[in-house]
UniProtKB/TrEMBL annotation:
Residues 4-229 form the ABC transporter domain. Keywords: ATP-binding, Cell membrane, Hydrolase, Membrane, Nodulation, Nucleotide-binding, Plasmid, Translocase, Transport. CDD domains: ABC_DR_subfamily_A. This is Nod factor export ATP-binding protein I (Nodulation ATP-binding protein I). The lineage of its organism: Bacteria, Pseudomonadati, Thermomicrobiota, Thermomicrobia, Thermomicrobiales. It is found in: Cell membrane. Its main location: membrane. Coiled coil: none annotated.
């Protein structure tokens, strides 16, 4: 069963085409990821699904409803964590939870959520006194409070330290285990690879690839990744001509080769040794979603985006 159905969605702002006819579905119970550089159309697409923006063209159905025309029917069934949110500075955490709980006939017990998100000691803390990461975790709690059928997460991990990210990831998995469908927009490729069943790669308002992370990696850049530190300007043998080599590039003094299998990796190393290329910090690892993303969009994920 499809929880979300999008067909030829289009949205423009004046002469700027933000979303240029995208189509996809989200299945019941899955975590569906949307990744792409800034300005790719991710947030605009999500806001159309949430009923916050009216599409210029195309068809959108969310839980059987038109989000724009049937917002009142849809709202109680979805949870939304926006890319940017705000609450009154003097409002306390406990008061915010009580306020949001009053909007729904039935809510979850917030205590386990507070514990898992590390906010148990902040119930009397004003919003203005929370750190950026604490605010982000609070908004996630508020989006989950009424136990929605569908949860929208736009830049879930913004402002979170590694420990906070892991705690949030665990909560997302537990939420899906309860039967909630999740649509996640993120700049963090490791987050998409870790959490998502399928990923849509957005670029310039279009979907350029849609598949499971593992299939995207295998199809676009190969299953294995060889990296080795090499001297600046060192000549390289014709690695790209080897069967099974998908991509060869230099990046900050490191040679990166994407390969299909172990045999290809062995051939790469043999050719480097044969041409007397010094092998420093040689590593072989699984292919990464970030590599596939870079190959598809030609755009690196920047620190600002992360």
């Amino acid at each position: 069963m499809n929880v979300v159905e999008v067909a030829e969605l289009r949205k423009t702002y004046g002469q700027v085409v933000a979303v240029a006819g995208v189509s996809f579905t989200v299945q019941d119970g899955e975590i569906f990821g949307i990744v792409g550089p800034n300005g790719a159309g991710k947030t605009t697409t999500i806001e159309c699904l949430e009923g916050l923006r009216r599409p210029d063209a195309g068809a959108v159905r969310v839980l059987g409803h038109d989000p724009w025309r049937e917002r009142r029917r849809l709202a109680p069934q979805i949870g939304v964590q926006l890319q940017e949110s705000a609450l009154p500075d003097r409002l306390r955490v406990g008061e915010a939870i009580a306020l949001f709980a009053s909007l729904y006939p039935k809510t979850l017990d917030p205590r386990p959520l507070l514990e898992q998100l590390g906010l148990s000691q902040q119930l009397r803390t004003p919003i203005a006194k929370l750190s950026g990461g604490q605010k982000q975790r609070l908004f996630l709690l508020l989006a989950l409070l009424h136990d929605p059928r569908l949860l929208f997460l736009d830049e879930l991990s913004t402002g979170l330290d590694p420990h906070g990210r892991r705690a949030v990831w665990q909560l997302v998995r537990a939420t899906r285990a309860r039967g909630t469908t999740i649509l996640l927009s993120t700049h963090l490729m490791d987050e998409a690879e870790e959490l998502c069943d399928r990923v849509a790669v957005f670029h310039q308002g279009r979907i350029v690839a849609l598949d499971t992370p593992s299939r995207l990696i295998a199809r676009i850049v190969g299953s294995l990744r060889v990296s080795v530190r090499i001297p600046e300007g060192a000549p390289l043998p014709p690695l790209q001509s080897l069967p099974g080599v998908r991509q060869v590039r230099r990046e900050d003094g490191t040679l990166i080769v994407h390969a299909d299998d172990d045999r290809t990796v062995a051939a790469v190393v043999h050719l480097l040794v044969e041409h007397r290329v010094p092998l420093r910090e040689l590593r072989v690892s699984s292919g990464r979603l970030e590599d596939a993303y870079l190959a598809l969009t030609g755009t690196a994920v920047t620190r600002e985006e992360q």
